[in-house]
Design goal:
This protein is an all-alpha fold. Among the domains are: 92-248, no CATH class; 259-294, no CATH class. It has 16 helices and no strands. It has helices at residues 4-10, 13-16, 22-45, 47-50, 54-60, 65-78, 81-100, 108-133, 145-166, 172-192, 203-211, 223-239, 241-247, 252-257, 259-266, 268-287. The radius of gyration is 22 Å and the shape is globular.
Length: 294
């Protein structure tokens, strides 16, 4: 018979910290795959803005005309309301799983700071991209998925920090009510306000995008409601902590089947951070030798 001491050690957070939950890696992988597909299609739609002579070359050269057709098709599909709904579904799943995963983190506040800094890098990179390609604010990501995740993790981390300082245990319901409040405010804003596409790039315009009063055509996930899904995920993770720990461990057969998705899931932050750089480099290396100019 296994003693209680051995059982407790086996299912303790310390014991499981280095192991992973295959299901969460797969779900994160599906989420990041959805982001990659959407953003690649968005970049295809933006080719006429990225390359100043794109229309001139594709309209004149029959061999290059297919690029214009692909770009036009992506332009029609990417901005369909249904596509926005699909993108949001992938995002919400990714956010909730990221929130649940905070139960495995030693320092959620630190992680929130790291993700927020990564999000600022994305904003800076897309701003510079707009300048270099002459497409202005077109590719600019002011408050995207990483920004929303960073704020959500910071909220969870601050709650954990206050709990440690005041020496009390956080009940999962606290995360639940905080997350529910953020999500409810977002749903209320979307229900009451007609949310316009932002054309204001001042500080006030930026704040409107951050809270969700205005939206961007590019990657946009406002604090309300999307950061709330991270906090809700943290509540689910804490509610079902012991059940989740039982999911941890190695499942060799399943890992083999889902390996492409688990690789994406385990490296989701790095992939999200650099995927636009990779996509842009791909298009430059492919099209500049054919005569296209930035």
């Amino acid at each position: 018979m296994i003693s209680n001491k051995i059982f407790k050690n086996k299912y303790s957070l310390k014991y499981h910290h280095k192991e992973r939950v295959l299901l969460f890696d797969v779900l994160r992988g599906i989420g990041i795959l959805g982001f990659l597909a959407f953003h690649f299609a968005y970049d295809l739609a933006m080719l006429p803005d990225y390359f100043e002579n794109f229309l001139d070359l594709t309209l004149v050269d029959p061999n290059l005309y297919f690029l214009l057709e692909i770009s036009n098709y992506c332009d029609k599909v990417v901005f369909l309301p249904m596509m926005r709904m699909i993108e949001q579904a992938f995002a919400i799943m990714f956010f909730v799983v990221s929130g649940i995963s905070t139960i495995f983190s030693r320092n959620t506040l630190r992680n929130g700071i790291i993700v927020s800094l990564a999000a600022m890098f994305v904003t800076l990179f897309t701003y510079v991209l707009g300048i270099l390609t002459g497409s202005g604010y077109g590719p600019l990501i002011r408050f995207g998925a990483l920004h929303a995740i960073g704020i959500g993790l910071l909220i969870v981390g601050i709650i954990e920090l206050i709990a440690r300082k005041l020496k009390f245990k956080v009940h999962p319901s606290l995360y639940f009510y905080v997350g529910l409040t953020l999500v409810s405010i977002g749903i209320l804003i979307m229900g009451i306000c007609k949310i316009p596409i932002s054309s204001d790039y001042s500080f006030i315009g930026y704040l409107k995008v951050v809270v969700g009063l205005e939206t961007d055509l590019t990657d946009h996930f406002a604090i309300f409601p999307y950061s709330g899904y991270i906090v809700l995920g943290a509540s689910f993770g804490n509610f079902f902590k012991h059940q989740i720990f039982l999911l941890k461990g190695r499942h060799k057969k399943m890992e083999k089947i889902f390996k492409p998705l688990t690789v994406l899931g385990r490296n989701s932050l790095v992939i999200y951070l650099f995927h636009q750089i990779v996509f842009l480099a791909f298009f430059i290396l492919l099209l500049v030798p054919l005569g296209f100019e930035l």
